[in-house]
């Protein structure tokens, strides 16, 4: 017979639970970066993919830190701009 966990702390620190919670938050927040992936790599959560700006990257990192605490996690977020070049390309 297991003892009740009134605060839900056991479930709340499971990596699978925290990873899904982060996916849900990223989908619901204003940032809504569709290219960002959240994967489990053993006991570590990996947050990776392209984002549209530095501000967006910082927002995703803040949300990840909040959602994944106290788990170990890493990130590999790349800022990718979809804007056209600001000058002509010089071809040889």
Can you describe this structure in just a few lines?
With 92 residues, the chain is an alpha+beta fold. The protein has three helices and three strands.
Number of domains: 1
CATH class: Alpha Beta
Largest sheet: 3 strands, mixed
The pLDDT mean sits at: 83
Task: Specify Rg, calculated over alpha carbons.
Answer: 18 Å
**Helix proportion:** 25-40%
In the predicted model, the low-confidence regions spanning at least 5 consecutive residues are 1-8
Q: For this entry, what is the oligomeric state of its chains?
A: single chain
| Share in β-strands | 15-25%
CATH-defined topology: Histidine-containing Protein, Chain: A
C-alpha termini separation:
76 Å
Structural class: alpha+beta
Total beta strands? 3
Which architecture per CATH? 2-Layer Sandwich
Element pattern in H and E = HHEEHE
**Shape category:** elongated
Number of helices: 3
Order of strands across the main sheet? 1-2-3
Structure notes:
The protein has about 90 residues and is of the alpha+beta class. It has a single domain (about 15-80), classed as 2-Layer Sandwich (Histidine-containing Protein, Chain: A), CATH 3.30.1340.30. Helices cover about 35% and strands about 20% of the residues. It has helices at about 10, 15-30, 55-70, and strands at about 35-40, 45-50, 75-80. Strands 1-2-3 form a 3-stranded mixed sheet, with helices on one face. Helix 2 (about 15-30) packs antiparallel against helix 3. The chain is elongated and about 55 Å long. About 20% of the residues are buried.
């Amino acid at each position: 017979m297991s003892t009740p966990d009134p605060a839900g702390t056991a479930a709340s620190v499971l990596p699978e639970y925290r990873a899904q919670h982060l996916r849900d938050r990223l989908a619901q927040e204003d940032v809504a970066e569709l290219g960002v992936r959240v994967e489990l790599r053993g006991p570590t959560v990996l947050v990776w993919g392209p984002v549209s700006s530095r501000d967006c990257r910082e927002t995703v990192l803040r949300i990840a830190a909040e959602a994944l605490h106290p788990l170990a996690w890493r990130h590999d977020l790349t800022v990718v701009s979809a804007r056209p070049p600001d000058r002509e390309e010089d071809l040889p």
